[in-house]
Amino acid sequence: MEIGGLFTALLFGAVIGGLGRLVVPGRQHVSLLATILVGTVAALLGTAAATVLGVANTPGIDWIELALQVGLAGAGVTLLANRAKPKLPR
Questions:
Q1: What totals of helices (H) and strands (E) does the chain contain, helices first?
Q2: What is the largest CA-CA distance in the chain?
Q3: What's CA 31's distance to the chain center, in Å?
Q4: pTM higher than 0.90 for the full model?
Q5: CB pairs under 8 A, 24+ apart, for 13-16?
Q6: What is the dihedral of CA 70, 76, 77, 80, to 10 degrees?
Q7: Rounded to whole angstroms, what are the CA distances from 78 to 26, 30, 85?
Q8: Cβ contacts of 5 within 8 Å, gap of 6 or more
Q9: What is the three-class DSSP state of 10?
Q10: pLDDT tens digits, 33-70
C-alpha cells in the first residue's frame, strides 16, 4: 500500500467513524483515534459486505454500501462506548 492510499484510508475512516458516532444517540466516551480505527474497519467490512451482496459497484453513489459502513461504525462505537463506560457502585 502506498502512502497516499494509507492517508485516504485514514481520512475515509475518520469520516465513516464520525458518521457512525452521529447515528448513536447520547454522548460516547471514545477517543478520536478509536473512532478513526472503528471507521476504517467498518469501511473495509462494509465494502466487503456490499461486494458479497452485489451492490458495491452501482452507477452514481453507492448508498447501500455507505449505509452498511455507517451502520457498522455505529455498532463499533456503541460497543467501545459501553465497554469504556465506568461502572458506578450501587
A1: 3, 0
A2: 55
A3: 14
A4: no
A5: 13/37, 13/38, 13/39, 13/40, 13/41, 13/42, 13/43, 14/39, 15/39, 16/40, 16/42, 16/43, 16/46, 16/69, 16/70, 16/73
A6: 180
A7: 10, 9, 10
A8: none
A9: helix
A10: 999 999 999 999 998 999 999 887 888 888 999 999 99
Chain segment 22-35, per-residue pLDDT in tens: 999 888 888 999 99
Helix or strand run (H / E) with residue 18: helix 3-23
Q: What are 45's three cell numbers? A: 467490512
Looking up cell 502506498 gives 2
Is 57:10 a contact under the CB 8 Å cutoff? no
Look up residue 7 and give its three cell numbers: 492517508
Whose cell is 474497519? That residue is 41
Sequence letter at residue 88:
L
Is 48 within 8 Å of 23 (Cβ atoms)? no
